[in-house]
């Protein structure tokens, strides 16, 4: 039987949501050090199907924590949003930056660890049970008694499933296709991204 560990905050998921939560706690008060544990079923760096856009707001959050990500990226200076024949264009320098999520998430996790955060990778959650004075979370390696549990484990959240907080809406499937770059294409030449949400009105979750 695994030993029971008492923690104030248990964060499930070490992507940007989970790491940001932990880092902001540490930034607010260094006394959170040792009272926060992050668990993730995966091990960084791991593949993550995602557009990988960091907005100016996201950059401001990182800078507020004293970080600046300078890994491989593509800068988008013009964003066109399309919905059933209507178009809206936004311009900024940049509107957002496109990064590789596996590299960015790994970088952010390392920043958290360097600030003293406890990150336990390769440790999936198997059970979440609310008790009278704590929440019992069982992983593949331990039993946690947590005062607060943060569900930062994505759209297929194990925590939400365990708590029976099921979503009523359907879920779309994500397909990622990598194509060769065309240097003379306007998207690459001028830093343009086009998001077509026309099918969202038909129930498609995505663009």
CA-based gyration radius: 20 Å
The class by helix and strand makeup works out as alpha/beta
Neighbour order of strands in the largest sheet: 6-2-1-9-8-7
- Number of contiguous helices: 5
* Portion of residues within helices: 10-25%
Entry keywords:
single chain, 207 residues, alpha/beta, FAD/NAD(P)-binding domain, 4-stranded mixed beta sheet
3D structure, described in words:
The protein is of the alpha/beta class. It has a domain at 4-52 and 100-166: 3-Layer(bba) Sandwich (FAD/NAD(P)-binding domain), CATH 3.50.50. It is 22% helix and 34% strand. The protein has helices at 16-28, 56-64, 101-114, 158-162, 186-190, and strands at 4-12, 36-40, 53-55, 73-83, 86-99, 118-121, 125-130, 135-139, 143-151, 192-196. Strands 6-2-1-9-8-7 form a six-stranded mixed sheet. Strands 3-5-4-10 form a four-stranded mixed sheet. Helix 1 (16-28) runs parallel beside helix 3 (101-114). The longest helix is centred in the middle third of the chain and has 14 residues, at 101-114. It is globular and about 60 Å long. The model has no long low-confidence stretch (mean pLDDT 92).
Task: Draw up the topology in text.
Blueprint: E1 4-12, H1 16-28, E2 36-40, E3 53-55, H2 56-64, E4 73-83, E5 86-99, H3 101-114, E6 118-121, E7 125-130, E8 135-139, E9 143-151, H4 158-162, H5 186-190, E10 192-196
Short recap of the structure:
The chain is α/β, with parallel strands linked by helices.
